[in-house]
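Supplementary Methods, section 5.1.

A reviewer requested that the exact input to the structure prediction be made available. We therefore reproduce it here, unchanged from the version used in the analyses.
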Amino acid sequence: MTDAKPTAARPTVFDELLQKIQSRDVCVGVVGLGYVGLPLALTFCESRLAVLGFDVDPKKVEHLHAGRSYLEHIDSGRVQTAVAEKRLAATNDFDRLAEVDVVIVAVPTPLTRHREPDMRFVESTTLEIKKRLRRGQLVILESTTYPGTTDELVLSQLLESGLKLGEDFFLAFSPEREDPGNPNFETASIPKVVGGVDAASGRLSQAVYECAIQRVVPVASARTAEAVKLTENIFRAVNIALVNELKVVFDAMDIDVWEVLDAAATKPFGFMKFSPGPGLGGHCIPIDPFYLTWKAREYGLSTRFIELAGEINVTMPRYVVDKLQAALNARGQALKNANVLLLGVAYKKNVDDSRESPAFPLLDLLRKRGANVEYHDPHVPSLPQTRAWSHLRPMQNHELTPALIQQQDAVLIATDHDGVDYDLIREHARLIIDSRGVYRKPSANVVKA
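The structure derived from this sequence is encoded token-by-token as follows.
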């Protein structure tokens, strides 16, 4: 009688998926092909992974199939290469979610009118995934949100599929850290934080991102990863509020806040420079703090410091318009019926992204006070129509010429794009309201705001 040979252990779903990831024989699905999803998809393609992108906007799908980028900071050559090498495809057919091994969700997470989390896009996307969820899939949420979203809202829906977490499918959170227009960092070089709902999910998520990102930072849980993202943006929001408040105080004392900050920044330790402005912009900083304040109330806690920072930043557009009105009054002119050129509608310099831009409340306030407003922004050819500002009339970019400048009673600098001729503006403008500290030397026609 011979001894029976031990049978080899059958590979688990985890083992099989990890092997596919490590051998780069994995298909990554990216849901939401905007400022986060598109650069991430291309980064995976450039790391020799196959990517299937999903978006409800058929125009984006059409652009990608034609090898065209629809984001200013993403070169079309990258798209053309990814499509030509058959690594990138795009669709609005969500039935194809069943084809991918990894589903990365990068959809918007805005606020409601009452400044509470608006989870409609995450919920609807999770529902689409649940309908097609199969064994061996990893789902990763990248949309910025409150701690607990992944293991409460997303997990509860996916479990309705009948599949088991950690055995059949896996779930994690990894916050996006895109910074459009920043020449020093790209998706591949920005460290990636990942946190799984369970240990197996965390390990698989780490392996996926290690295929394309230079440094991956694993943390203990999805909740930790969600809190990391909020902490980063709350840090910025609070410090911007601080310098905005200092701007108001120092202005009353006839002190130039930008000169103060430049000088303070020469200290090689213990100080980090933040710049004041006309208000917060972008999809993250004006929104993310409110996600944490909302969630904190569930635990009976208040976030007074964060909420105060939000109040200060929200008042900045009104402060800037008040400075403009006072400057016109000092020159014997009313703001009503005045011609005002808004310089910049993107939320920050050198990008085409106008999400949550302070330009929108500035436009709204100026219109309500009777001003005639046009704008110039070399990166934004037409004013985007948004849900929050749908009442603003359609506007087109105006070419910056001496004649246009001379027709204005005031030029209000809302965004300090590098490609703008500020000397031309100073030479021909009657009045300049500078909310970005563009002009450091005093000038008779420049008012800092």
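The mean pLDDT is 94. These observations are discussed further in the main text.
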